[in-house]
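Memo to structure team: turn this sequence into structure tokens by end of day. - J.P.
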Amino acid sequence: MSAVIDLEAEYNNRAKVPESSALIAGWAQDAKAYRDSGVPMRVIPYGSGARNTIDYFPVGDAGPVVVFIHGGYWQALDSSFFSHLARGLNSRGISVAIPSYDLCPNVSVGDIIAQMRAATSELAKLGRRLVVSGHSAGGHLAACMLATDWRALDPALPQDLIVGAYAISGLFDLAPLVPTSINNALHLSDTSAREVSPLFWPAPSRGCLDAVVGGDEGVEYLRQSQSIVDAWGARIPARFEALSGANHFTAVAPLADPQSAMVLRLKALATL
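Reply from structure team:
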């Protein structure tokens, strides 16, 4: 008989990593320092709401753009915590776009997916190759963008609008969250959780997926990333990677380092 998994413990990342509050505070400080360093940045609106904005860190007027979608279980944080994660790719000549979005319980997870589609459609106006990355809930949203039928949304958009997704510590099956305290803000039912889970959507027919997870994360996060690779790997190139020594909060740190394997992989995806 298989052991019963304590879903509350598996998905409560802040409890699993006691120093998480200090790490998040450090993100905010490093992000502000990067913005204050004089790097080019402009804010692109994609909707009418105060949070419907994209922090855009351009490098030149041409070339690819890597989008980074932040995490926070769809109910916390915004783009201002993550500006520093543009450093690695900016240093490699790649522009980076970091959108914010409205949060649960004010909106639903489905609404947030729609907002990220709107943000991506806005970035399409730049006429540049797009790779979408994201962390945690942002990893879920990155996968959703890769699996979106863009022509069905807008016939003017290219079907291959997203050339690749790079999901860090992503969630692709939201059903395990339903019985946990995380769902207090999400208000997911078994049915609605499945509807917003890209694991159960038709696999994308173009592009590629990297599902990367901290090697020190729990078995559920490791399973989530492996499951989306298994599900989509028959249709598109898909790879799983566990980052040795990384937990849920430190898994994104390599994005700030121009020399990291993560930055080099994203540059390769963006310039294929």
